[in-house]
């Protein structure tokens, strides 16, 4: 068989079908390993996309059954050995399975309309593959399909995915188009779908689903480089097949349009003279006509040129940071930067139309609408990173997208967890608020601050959401009236503080005073007797019995235990220190958290609690700032020690190189900041807490044209401690950097040592921002 010949040829055959690598060997894009995170719990995908692109075209290796959807949240797992097709929308690093829209699978030979089973080769249209026959880099993916007798290459513009298929000599070029796609249960999820044959080189359609976001509509247009010779469209649910040639009415049983919940098309293009077929797929939030218009973003059929454009786009975006480091560290950090630039993703047609949270079509004026906001995760480090290194207009687009969504929200609030314009209500808090406030505090222009502040307070005062009516009345969320009450109380308090910060800068003293007061509500759920954050009942008593290790979905905490959540008052760490009993008490308690001997079974029932070091869970976001808290207690050397431990154990260059879900780039943004040597513990403070660097040198090419250089002197595996820091040649006494110190340009130099400097940063004046005075 041809497949067996291909298998024997191995990687050499794959290399022969690929053009020269688009990314120059020394370029940032060449340093990225897109397979990091595709195994373990990272949930990333290896396919082709542009920075923040609408199309994210990637292989899917498994039909995602409902009870096993978590491992395949991104559609692809590195440990799988077969591919069922290539779909055009994906999440990068989420803990929830959705998308996987419009799956295409090229093949030759017998037509099979079901994907089949991984353990049974040739049982369906899926095909086995080998990793040595697979290649990927930013903006490009290629693989040899062993059973389907096709070599596949993928690339993308912002709204268009481009496929190139190479078939065996003399073989018919065939493609399966499956609108059931890689979802776990199309009968439960697909509300309706449509396939429409426009002519013998163009098919359009749509799919409406009720998955994570109910009523989501996606439209598409598929163009082919060769005309169809025949095709069969089948509604698998009704077991009806429509056969015929390309044009409407061209043969018995032919039909130009088919509708239903389970549509599959088998498309035949005959035997191309060059053995090659290219396919362009554009998507739209608005209509089939919008998708057709979006195809105009990629005129012509020059695959290699489009691949080069994608590579150039990634090199430009990644070039915001020039990295000099040991090879593995350089690879990890550039890959982290890459993963931090996949979302929020564009979700707007070329004419500016988009679909909002009211599921209606709107027109963007002066900005580009983006969606896919995993805000509970990304407000912590991803958005501060993008605010620092991405062009101002891109960040304005993010902020405007949030504000415009609030205007048409059926509830009048900012997005909570939004994708494809629609709300999912996933996670807690009103964390669009710190994203907007942090951007405003750092001087971002291009949006109406009064309009933004109104949207922020509307979200913070919408009583029906997440127990807010009780929070506003009692000063905490009561556990007998609302689940996850302890977590909601402290996260609301932080969001409130960011409103106060922005209102104060705007001169709105009345709003600032009200929200600074609300920001202290975290104290109402902190039990000073036990030293833990606890859920409190509406009668003012803490819920009993109490176990600081207990974690369950819908319990006192959100994806965590008291050990992970008792540090969550990042705007007021001095207040935490006072409640615990002083600097030494905070240091000792963090030490206890990291050094605890924890049976892995304790958190085994919680998929998201991963990357454990004692009770510290780096694989989930509530722990991400904790290692930096030693700075607030005058012991930055302990922060340096813990960061060394975290990076060494939680990140590597293998497919399992992320210890938890990347969550649209938050895990990656944490590594990027930490490798540079500082981290935004409290977005909105305009300060970055200094840790320790992991790079020999990094140059930030800032959006304002300035350059900020970070150098490490004496960095090695043994020299993990900072013995001195200078900023522009002058010793830095503070253990933090201000945002304006970075954006002014200059040079930050770390001198590293094998021994800790226990004196640096010990005094109160050296410590980072906190709301409570020392």
From TrEMBL:
Residues 291-753 form the Glycosyl hydrolase family domain. Keywords: Hydrolase, Signal. GO terms for biological process: carbohydrate metabolic process; glycoprotein catabolic process. It comes from the Bacteria. GO terms for cellular component: cytosol. GO terms for molecular function: carbohydrate binding; peptide-N4-(N-acetyl-beta-glucosaminyl)asparagine amidase activity. The keyword Manganese does not apply. Residues 32-284 form the Glycosyl hydrolase family 92 N-terminal domain. It holds the Pfam family Glyco_hydro_92N. The keyword Hydrolase applies. Residues 1-22 form the signal peptide. InterPro entries: 6-hairpin_glycosidase_sf, GH-type_carb-bd, GH92_a_mannosidase_put, GH92_N, Glyco_hydro_92, PNGase. NCBIfam families: aman2_put. This is Glycoside hydrolase family 92 protein. It comes from Duganella vulcania.
């Amino acid at each position: 068989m041809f497949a067996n010949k291909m298998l024997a040829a191995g990687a050499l055959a794959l290399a022969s079908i690929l053009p020269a690598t688009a990314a120059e060997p020394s370029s940032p894009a060449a340093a990225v390993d897109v397979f990091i995170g595709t195994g373990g719990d990272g949930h990333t995908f290896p396919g082709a996309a542009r920075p923040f692109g609408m199309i994210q075209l990637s292989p899917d290796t498994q039909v995602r059954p409902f009870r096993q959807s978590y491992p395949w949240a991104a559609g692809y797992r590195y440990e799988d050995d077969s591919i069922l097709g290539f779909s055009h929308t994906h999440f990068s690093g989420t803990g929830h399975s959705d998308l996987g829209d419009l799956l295409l699978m090229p093949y030759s030979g017998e037509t099979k309309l079901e994907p089949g089973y991984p353990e049974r080769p040739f049982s369906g249209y899926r095909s086995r593959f080998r990793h040595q026959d697979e290649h990927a880099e930013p903006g490009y993916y290629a693989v040899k399909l062993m059973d389907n007798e096709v070599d596949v290459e993928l690339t993308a513009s912002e709204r268009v995915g481009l496929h190139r298929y190479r078939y065996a000599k003399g073989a018919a070029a065939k493609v399966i188009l499956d609108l059931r796609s890689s979802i776990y249960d199309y009968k439960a999820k697909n509300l309706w779908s449509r396939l429409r044959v426009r002519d013998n080189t163009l098919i359009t359609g749509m799919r409406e689903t009720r998955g994570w976001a109910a009523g989501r509509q996606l439209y598409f247009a598929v163009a082919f480089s060769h005309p169809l010779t025949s095709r069969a469209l089948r509604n698998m649910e009704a077991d009806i097949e429509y056969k015929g040639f390309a044009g409407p009415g061209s043969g018995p049983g032919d039909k130009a349009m088919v509708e239903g919940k389970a549509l599959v098309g088998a498309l035949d293009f005959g035997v191309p003279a060059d053995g090659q077929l290219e396919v362009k797929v554009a998507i739209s939030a608005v209509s089939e006509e919008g998708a057709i218009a979006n195809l105009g973003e990629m005129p012509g059929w020059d695959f290699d040129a489009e691949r080069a454009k994608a590579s150039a786009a990634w090199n430009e975006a990644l070039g915001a940071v020039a990295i000099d480091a040991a090879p593995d560290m350089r690879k990890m950090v550039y890959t982290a930067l890459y993963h931090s630039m996949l979302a929020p993703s564009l979700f707007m047609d070329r004419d500016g139309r988009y679909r909002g949270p009211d599921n209606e079509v709107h027109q963007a004026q002066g900005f580009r609408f983006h969606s896919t906001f995993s805000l509970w995760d990304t407000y912590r480090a991803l958005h501060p990173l993008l605010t620092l290194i991405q062009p101002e207009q891109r960040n304005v687009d993010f902020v405007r997208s949030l504000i415009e969504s609030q205007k048409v929200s059926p509830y009048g609030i900012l997005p909570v967890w939004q994708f494809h314009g629609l709300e999912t209500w996933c996670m807690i808090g009103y964390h669009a608020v710190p994203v907007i406030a942090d951007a405003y505090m750092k001087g971002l222009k291009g949006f109406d601050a009064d309009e933004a502040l109104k949207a922020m307070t509307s979200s913070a005062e919408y009583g029906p959401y997440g127990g807010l009516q009780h929070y506003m009345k009692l000063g905490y969320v009561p556990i007998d009236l609302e689940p996850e009450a302890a977590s909601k109380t402290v996260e609301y308090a932080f969001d409130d503080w960011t409103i106060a910060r922005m209102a104060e800068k705007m001169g709105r003293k009345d709003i600032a005073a009200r929200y600074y007061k609300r920001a202290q509500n975290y104290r109402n759920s902190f039990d000073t007797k036990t030293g833990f954050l606890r859920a409190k009942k509406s009668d003012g008593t803490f819920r009993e019995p109490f176990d600081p290790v207990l974690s369950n979905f819908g319990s006192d905490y959100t994806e965590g235990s008291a050990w992970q959540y008792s540090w969550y008052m990042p705007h007021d760490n001095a207040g935490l220190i006072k409640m615990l009993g002083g600097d030494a008490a905070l240091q000792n308690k963090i030490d206890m958290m990291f050094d605890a001997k924890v049976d892995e079974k304790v958190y085994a029932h919680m998929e998201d609690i991963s990357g454990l070091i004692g009770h510290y869970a780096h694989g989930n976001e509530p722990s991400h700032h904790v290692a930096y808290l030693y700075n607030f207690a005058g012991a930055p050397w302990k922060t340096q020690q813990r960061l060394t431990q975290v990076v060494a154990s939680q990140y590597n260059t293998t497919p399992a190189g992320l210890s938890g879900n990347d969550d649209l780039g938050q895990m990656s943004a944490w590594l990027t900041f930490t490798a540079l040597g500082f981290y935004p513990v409290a977005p909105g403070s305009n300060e970055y807490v200094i840790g320790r660097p992991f790079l020999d040198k990094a140059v930030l090419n800032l959006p304002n044209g300035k350059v900020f250089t970070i150098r490490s002197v004496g960095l090695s595996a043994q020299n993990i401690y900072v013995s001195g820091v200078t900023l522009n040649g002058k010793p830095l006494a503070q253990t933090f950097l201000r945002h304006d110190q970075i954006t002014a340009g200059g040079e930050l130099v770390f001198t590293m040592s094998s021994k800790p400097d226990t004196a640096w940063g010990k005094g109160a004046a050296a410590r980072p921002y906190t709301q409570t005075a020392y």
